[in-house]
């Protein structure tokens, strides 16, 4: 049987947001990996990549996830064809980088220029003002205390914090003495293996400010090792067999070794401290110190080479050396403190990284010049090279990319604007040319009249209003002195409640309940309508509004959405249950693939519901029959087919917690003005959905196809 390429991305629930780098990773690997050994993406897997026939990126200019869910029913073919769905953070640079907008260099010249480290173009001081390092720290030199993470930064980056419930049982280093710019620095790094418990430490290294190794110890995990991760950790079963040292021994030794004013330095040190189950109040994280835009981070290996001129994590070695990594992170922090932000920014690390990547693509093995020694002699002459784009990389490898729509490539390889072309003309050209190209970008557009800010504000308010109505149910009538606590308890078994209010305008009291997830509201309508609650036989219904006239159709389509295939929703759980507790509870269910336990994205607290994803849709159907009526840790649970298990779950939460939730007179006026435009927009969306269907049908088998909704920003 012929093998076929397919994409597997095991992201679920709140993990359905990917960075621009991750999407870039996927596209680059799919387009170049087969010929030029581009690294595979870290967040997903392409099966049988050698069978990939090509890559097609369809861009819907002016459209965002707001349009996708507002016109969900109109995007009939799109949502049924594409199995994976992800959010991208807003950015003006991603598409520009893909197209090469701005500088318009000829790809041939760009590629030749990048093979040597030219220092003719020195970054101007005005350019440095926008460097993320300068924006974060300013230009002046500071002492080390200016670069330690604040408590808020530690929380944001998941550092273990003293007093947090999640850190119960963690060991505190008790280094409480006031830090000064003379406080001692210590480099820390750990290697981990995967055990039945999760990530557990198998090796720990600590180095002092002079680079002397104070601790380099193997550690025996408490749980059974599932994967030694030898390629990265360097740890083997044979190495750990005679080891007697346990995590508690290491914790005790580290507490004794660290002075009361010690500052720990590491690269993504939060992972090391979590694995060590230790809390330390003062840290410098080099992955955050060398700041980049949009939350991206430089790898330690790159920084060591570009800044220090040191090769670490060499492929010839078996796994990483934690002492080497700890020393590299420490020296990077020392370099940053000694030289100051302005000198670090002048290194132009972003450009160096781009140069290195393009050099790999063109198989140019010229090493990056060590920067530390050059900084001492020529601090004002760092290399500054033209920034290559993805299309340049393709042309370097001899592939001619196809670019159709708002930007097109002319005969000389320049990227030119072409705003007059209609969507129909673009489709006709795409149907002819895309099947002949290995990498294509096809751009359709809504048109400027549909992306005005007042129209988008009106659309946004309409979607938010409809979602709120779908999450809301009315229940009653109740007796005059009914027990509100009983009502909350009964309706809480359907899922997390956002608000509950008593309606007193009616002859007998009713309650209005707004849930946090769609499944909870639907369960309440299906299971509690006609039930006896708080001594009354009640009716449960959603609000009757024009926007909800198609609610039943929408619910049915969401159930059938490919993203919800094989996924069920379970409610009525204790909030104290962890994912590990639930994994154990549901372990007997056949073909259970993964479990997602939603939490409040602000407080981090778990909700009383979860989603279960099964390998086969039939296994999910069978599980529903088994689970309904189950008792989990003393509580009876309810379940149904999922409606918003993946990307939509996070998006609903964001819509409900975004600013401007209550629409004023101005917003209502915008919504009223939207009526005629919305009809035109609905037709436009149907046409675009049809265009995508026609184009998709012409693609060769084993083509990776990505549809982007970039929004107006």
Automatic annotation (TrEMBL):
<dbReference type="Pfam" id="PF00929">
    <property type="entry name" value="RNase_T"/>
</dbReference>
<dbReference type="InterPro" id="IPR047021">
    <property type="entry name" value="REXO1/3/4-like"/>
</dbReference>
<keyword id="KW-0694">RNA-binding</keyword>
<keyword id="KW-0540">Nuclease</keyword>
<protein>
    <submittedName>
        <fullName>REXO5 exonuclease</fullName>
    </submittedName>
</protein>
<feature type="domain" description="RRM">
    <location>
        <begin position="566"/>
        <end position="644"/>
    </location>
</feature>
<dbReference type="GO" id="GO:0005634">
    <property type="term" value="C:nucleus"/>
</dbReference>
<feature type="domain" description="RRM">
    <location>
        <begin position="471"/>
        <end position="545"/>
    </location>
</feature>
<dbReference type="InterPro" id="IPR034922">
    <property type="entry name" value="REX1-like_exo"/>
</dbReference>
<dbReference type="InterPro" id="IPR000504">
    <property type="entry name" value="RRM_dom"/>
</dbReference>
<dbReference type="GO" id="GO:0004527">
    <property type="term" value="F:exonuclease activity"/>
</dbReference>
<dbReference type="InterPro" id="IPR036397">
    <property type="entry name" value="RNaseH_sf"/>
</dbReference>
<dbReference type="GO" id="GO:0003723">
    <property type="term" value="F:RNA binding"/>
</dbReference>
<dbReference type="Pfam" id="PF00076">
    <property type="entry name" value="RRM_1"/>
</dbReference>
<dbReference type="InterPro" id="IPR035979">
    <property type="entry name" value="RBD_domain_sf"/>
</dbReference>
<keyword id="KW-0269">Exonuclease</keyword>
<keyword id="KW-0378">Hydrolase</keyword>
<dbReference type="InterPro" id="IPR012677">
    <property type="entry name" value="Nucleotide-bd_a/b_plait_sf"/>
</dbReference>
<dbReference type="InterPro" id="IPR013520">
    <property type="entry name" value="Ribonucl_H"/>
</dbReference>
<dbReference type="InterPro" id="IPR012337">
    <property type="entry name" value="RNaseH-like_sf"/>
</dbReference>
């Amino acid at each position: 049987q012929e093998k076929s390429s397919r994409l597997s991305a095991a992201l679920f629930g709140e993990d359905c947001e990917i960075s621009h780098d991750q999407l870039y990773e996927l596209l680059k690997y799919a387009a170049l990996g087969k010929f030029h050994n581009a690294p595979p993406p870290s967040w997903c897997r392409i099966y049988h990549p050698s069978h990939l026939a090509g890559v097609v990126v369809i861009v819907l200019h002016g459209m965002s996830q707001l349009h996708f869910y507002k016109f969900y029913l109109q995007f009939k073919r799109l949502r049924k064809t594409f199995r994976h769905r992800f959010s991208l953070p807003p950015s003006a640079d991603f598409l520009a980088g893909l197209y090469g907008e701005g500088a318009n260099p000829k790809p041939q010249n760009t590629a030749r220029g990048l093979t040597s480290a030219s220092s003719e173009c020195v970054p101007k001081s005005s350019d440095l003002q926008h460097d993320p390092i300068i924006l974060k720290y300013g230009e002046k030199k500071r002492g080390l205390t200016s670069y330690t993470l604040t408590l808020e930064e530690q929380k944001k980056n998941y550092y273990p914090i003293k007093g947090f419930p999640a850190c119960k049982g963690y060991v505190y280093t008790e280094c409480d003495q006031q830090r000064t710019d003379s406080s001692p620095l210590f480099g820390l790094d750990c290697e981990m293996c995967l055990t039945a418990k999760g990530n557990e430490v198998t090796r720990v290294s600590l180095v002092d400010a002079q680079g002397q190794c104070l601790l380099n110890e193997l550690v025996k995990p408490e749980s059974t090792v599932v994967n030694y991760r030898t390629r990265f950790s360097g740890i083997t079963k044979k190495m750990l067999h005679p080891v007697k040292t346990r995590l508690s021994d290491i914790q005790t030794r580290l507490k004794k070794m660290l002075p009361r004013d010690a500052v720990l330095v590491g690269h993504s040190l939060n992972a090391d401290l979590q694995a060590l189950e230790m809390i330390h109040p003062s840290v410098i994280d080099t992955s955050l110190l060398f700041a980049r835009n949009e939350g991206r981070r430089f790898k330690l290996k790159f920084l060591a080479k570009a800044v220090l001129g040191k090769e670490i994590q060499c492929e010839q070695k078996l796994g990483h050396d934690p002492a080497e990594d700890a020393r590299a992170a420490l020296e990077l922090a020392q370099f940053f403190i000694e030289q100051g932000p302005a000198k670090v920014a002048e290194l132009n690390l972003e450009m160096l990284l781009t140069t290195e990547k393009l050099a790999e693509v063109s198989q140019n093995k010229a090493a990056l010049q060590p920067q530390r020694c050059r900084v001492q002699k020529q601090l004002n002459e760092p290399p500054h090279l033209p920034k290559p784009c993805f299309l340049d990389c393709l042309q370097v490898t001899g592939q001619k990319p196809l670019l159709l729509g708002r930007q097109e490539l002319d005969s000389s390889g320049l990227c030119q604007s072409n705003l007059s072309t209609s969507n129909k003309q673009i489709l006709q050209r795409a149907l002819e040319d895309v099947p002949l190209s290995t990498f294509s970008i096809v751009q359709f557009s809504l048109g400027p009249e549909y992306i005005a800010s007042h129209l988008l504000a009106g659309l946004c308010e309409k979607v938010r209003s409809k979602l709120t109505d779908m999450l809301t149910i009315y229940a009653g009538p109740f007796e005059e002195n009914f027990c509100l606590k009983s009502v909350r308890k009964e309706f809480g078994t359907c899922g997390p409640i956002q608000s509950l209010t008593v309606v007193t305008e009616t002859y007998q009291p009713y309650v209005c309940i707004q849930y946090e997830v769609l499944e909870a509201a639907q369960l309440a309508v299906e299971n509690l309508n006609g039930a006896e609650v708080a001594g009354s036989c009640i009716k449960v219904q959603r609000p009757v509004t024009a926007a909800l006239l198609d609610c039943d159709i929408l619910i049915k389509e969401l159930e059938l959405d490919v993203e919800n295939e094989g996924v069920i929703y379970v409610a009525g759980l204790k909030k104290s249950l962890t994912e590990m507790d639930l994994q154990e509870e549901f372990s007997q269910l056949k073909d259970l693939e993964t479990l997602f336990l939603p939490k409040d994205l602000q407080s981090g607290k778990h909700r009383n519901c979860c989603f279960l994803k099964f390998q086969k849709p039939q296994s999910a159907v069978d599980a529903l029959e088994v689970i309904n009526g189950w008792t989990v840790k003393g509580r009876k649970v309810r379940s149904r087919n999922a409606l918003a298990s993946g990307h939509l779950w996070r998006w609903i939460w964001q819509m409900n917690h975004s600013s401007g939730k209550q629409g004023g007179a101005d917003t209502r006026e915008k919504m009223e003005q939207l009526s005629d435009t919305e009809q035109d927009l609905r037709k436009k969306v149907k046409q675009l959905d049809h265009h995508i269907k026609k184009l998709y049908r012409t693609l060769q088998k084993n083509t990776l196809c990505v549809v982007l909704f970039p929004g107006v920003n």
